[in-house]
């Protein structure tokens, strides 16, 4: 996507042909900075502290982390160590495990003398395929937005509510939930996005609003708890979110608070769609509520907040009463019964085992 007139992906090979550059997402929304990863440890750190985040981008970063490890030591032991250490960085996003399993299976068959280049080639291919999948998701999601637009008065926007950041900053490019929005906007369909702030890390206010603004998409940042109110008053035409892991039965794990949006959407008759590339589907799981591991992050993400003061400095302040315990589950699970449909690179898929298996038979066989 474009940033100040320059086209960027979120991750790319540096000029030296071996280091890897990323956009440091911990610096948003007040600064746009890039970071150079030169080692496996750099890649693991970037994932762990959320310099990169979003399931597809985590997977792509992990693939490049393996390549960086192979550039230093291409032995079987180093390959195993790299995959194991990267897998431990974050537990919920299944794309991480998918990318590492793919790298392990592919590279173990390559002679160590050729393994470094093979690892870089694989990482590049994962990135390119992610972009292609997101563009396909955008095309299929665009059809939904276009149909809603036909019911509107001339010039009246389609109002879309999203939660967290499933934009191009969460992928290699285009995004999942935002790809249809960008394509609708580019195609002249009036759209307006209600952007949940998405506490506690504020990915909506910090990231989604930033990228929508740079692309010129009309949007309004709202408090997380405002979505239900807007739906009750007919100000939301559809809810469109991403996911970090979706089960073979259509249960959807996404940023904490997504479940509440789905409940409100169901009560108000608002369609609730989830945009995802197929690597985000975990065909080994059937019950999202019981089987998906939910990452518990540091309580300081809830008790403290970072922002820009009127003087222009960036400061972190405490906002919770002294002595209070703080819990911070990072994700929740929305049952398939609340999901109107899954927007994938293969098209719109019903959130049930039969439809998902029919859309991705090769993935089902691979998980058997």
How would you sum up this structure, described in words?
The chain is an alpha/beta fold. The chain has two domains: 127 residues, Four Helix Bundle (Hemerythrin (Met), subunit A) (Up-down Bundle), CATH 1.20.120.420; 232 residues, Translation initiation factor eif-2b, domain 2 (Rossmann fold, 3-Layer(aba) Sandwich). The chain has a seven-stranded mixed β-sheet with strand order 8-7-6-9-12-17-18, sandwiched between helices. The protein has a four-stranded mixed β-sheet with strand order 13-10-11-16, covered by helices on one side. Strands 3-4-5 form a three-stranded antiparallel β-sheet, with helices on one face. Strand 1 and strand 2 form a beta hairpin. The chain starts with a strand and ends with a helix. The model has no long low-confidence stretch (mean pLDDT 96).
The CATH superfamily of the largest domain appears as Translation initiation factor eif-2b, domain 2
What is the count of helical runs? 13
- Please tell me the total number of domains: 2
CATH topology of the largest domain: Rossmann fold
Straight-line distance between termini: 38 Å
CATH class of the largest domain: Alpha Beta
> Mind telling me the C-alpha Rg?
20 Å
Ranges where pLDDT stays below 50 over 5 or more residues in a row are none
In which order are the strands of the major sheet placed? 8-7-6-9-12-17-18
Report on the biggest sheet. Answer: 7 strands, mixed
Strand content: 15-25%
What is the share of helical residues?
Answer: 40-55%
Can you tell me the overall shape? globular
Helix/strand structural class? alpha/beta
Organism: Roseibium aquae
EC number: 5.3.1.23
Pfam family, one: IF-2B
Pathway: Amino-acid biosynthesis; L-methionine biosynthesis via salvage pathway; L-methionine from S-methyl-5-thio-alpha-D-ribose 1-phosphate: step 1/6
């Amino acid at each position: 996507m474009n940033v100040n007139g320059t086209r960027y992906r979120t991750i790319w090979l540096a000029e030296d042909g071996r280091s890897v550059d990323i956009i440091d997402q911990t610096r948003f929304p007040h600064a746009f900075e890039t970071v150079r990863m030169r080692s496996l440890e750099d890649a693991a750190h970037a994932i762990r502290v959320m310099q990169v985040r979003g399931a597809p981008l985590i997977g792509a970063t992990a693939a490049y982390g393996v390549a960086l490890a192979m550039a230093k030591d291409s032995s079987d032991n180093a390959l195993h160590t790299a995959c194991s250490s990267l897998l431990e960085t974050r537990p919920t996003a299944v794309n991480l495990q998918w990318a590492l399993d793919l790298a392990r299976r592919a590279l173990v068959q390559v002679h160590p003398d050729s393994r470094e280049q093979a690892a870089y080639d694989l990482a590049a291919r994962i990135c390119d395929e992610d972009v292609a999948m997101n563009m396909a998701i955008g095309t299929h999601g665009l059809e939904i937005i276009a149909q809603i637009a036909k019911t509107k008065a001339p010039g009246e926007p389609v109002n879309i509510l999203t939660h967290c950041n499933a934009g191009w900053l969460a992928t290699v490019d285009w995004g999942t939930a935002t790809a249809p929005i960008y394509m609708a906007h580019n195609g002249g369909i009036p759209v307006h996005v209600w952007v949940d702030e998405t506490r506690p890390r504020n990915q909506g206010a910090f990231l989604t609003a930033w990228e929508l603004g740079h692309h010129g998409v009309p949007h309004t940042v709202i408090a997380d708890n405002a979505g239900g109110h807007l739906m009750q008053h007919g100000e939301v035409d559809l809810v469109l979110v991403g996911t970090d892991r979706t089960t073979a039965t259509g249960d959807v794990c996404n940023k904490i608070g997504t479940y509440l949006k789905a409940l409100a959407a169901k009560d108000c008759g608002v369609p609730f769609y989830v945009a995802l590339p197929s690597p985000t589907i975990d065909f080994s799981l059937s019950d999202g509520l019981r089987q998906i591991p939910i990452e518990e992050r540091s309580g300081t993400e809830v008790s403290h907040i970072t922002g820009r003061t009127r003087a222009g400095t960036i400061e972190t302040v405490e906002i919770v009463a002294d002595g209070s315990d703080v819990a911070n589950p990072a994700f929740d699970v929305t049952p398939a019964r609340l999901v109107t449909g899954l927007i994938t690179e293969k098209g719109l898929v019903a959130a049930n085992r039969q439809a998902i298996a029919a859309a991705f038979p090769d993935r089902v066989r691979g998980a058997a």
